[in-house]
């Protein structure tokens, strides 16, 4: 697949349906194939600027999204062709959309805006266009072909987050097609440089805040979890807070010499021993009001009695030792062990290693980047750093906090202290209420709860101004699908995408007038 596939024509895209497609027809979800909608224009639209969209199939839209290679290798991706395709979709629906170029060639943002009936602060949907790189030889399918196999759609971004984008856009366009009016402007921002790069949401906020100024924001985040059978919806969460992101660099030095003479002063060996020292070490469990509420909801939601008992033990533990024992049992019993381990404590992951340059030279230096995620209100990043340094004190390695360019360690720690202390988004907002209502209607047998996101989002330009920001991935995933996020054979089920689109349709319906 080329890096810059051409934008598809409006007609070819809007009338495309996939095999086994689920079409949004007549305001309900129906299987099979439906005829194109009669020509006409939305009550939201100005003068017609093209044919009205056909009944939009979120699976067909996701397949089209996945066909665009928007890999971000660290300095932004090529997102213009993808943005042009989505602009054609918005244009066809009569919704104004604007491409915002960045200083990097062909790396752009796209902003669509549905005009509301009042001056109420807008609702902004934030969905990134870039994806992490792929290891093509590790995939069982072409990662940019949108292959459907055994009821799952595969592709880089299927889960994170083109799947969510297709559900959001498909649901909104269904309202537009029905002639809906909303009580406020709805802004749909498809941003670039979320995974990495200089020109993401921070750059956009600094240069075009008037275009994205909103009263509440919804992006990626909360997971929709299944019971042990991997299918039945169990827990529907909306994240109101991200973990605190920071990096540590481990470095070891040694004698550089000819590789024919191995010596005990090897930088690589020293670094390897340090990695072994902290590989299976766990930071202390830290429960906060946000995570206590989450684990309480999980105890209520699960039909797995041993897991429920472990969760009750965790929440009732009176000592740190008791919490640690109960937490280990929760992770052991959980169908989502990696997720729940991450929500319990500061995590550290070995991500980038650099050592050596020639096979006949033992190098004098070896370095390792460790990505860390702290629990806001739990263990402070500065305390985690001190614990790592203490643990590696006898390993002859240096541990450095990787701050911003020109930033001292203490300044970086103060900045992280501020992020750590930042309160979660308020639950008193029309958006949070709408998410809860949509969850109750779409997943009536599941439990709904706010949560902590174990990863990070692009919400800070808004939340730093006090604007509430939340996250959902609007489809039920099992543990294998969750682990494939940023990994190989990333996928979600077609049925979950269908139900997630219905969830988003009901959410947006809470903002309809009349």
TrEMBL record:
What is the protein name given in its UniProt record? Acetylornithine deacetylase/succinyl-diaminopimelate desuccinylase-like protein
Q: Output the InterPro entries linked to this UniProt entry.
A: ArgE/DapE_CS (IPR001261), Pept_M20A (IPR047177), Peptidase_M20 (IPR002933), Peptidase_M20_dimer (IPR011650), TAT_signal (IPR006311)
Which family is this sequence assigned to?
Answer: Belongs to the peptidase M20A family.
SUPFAM superfamilies per the UniProt record, alphabetical:
Zn-dependent exopeptidases
Recorded GO MF terms: metal ion binding; peptidase activity
Keywords in UniProt for this one?
Hydrolase, Metal-binding, Protease, Zinc
Q: Which residues form the Peptidase M20 dimerisation domain?
A: 252-396
Q: Which organism is it from?
A: Actinomadura citrea
Q: Where are the transmembrane segments?
A: none
Biological processes annotated in GO: proteolysis
Say which domain of life the source belongs to. Bacteria
UniProt xrefs under Pfam families: M20_dimer, Peptidase_M20
* Signal peptide location: none
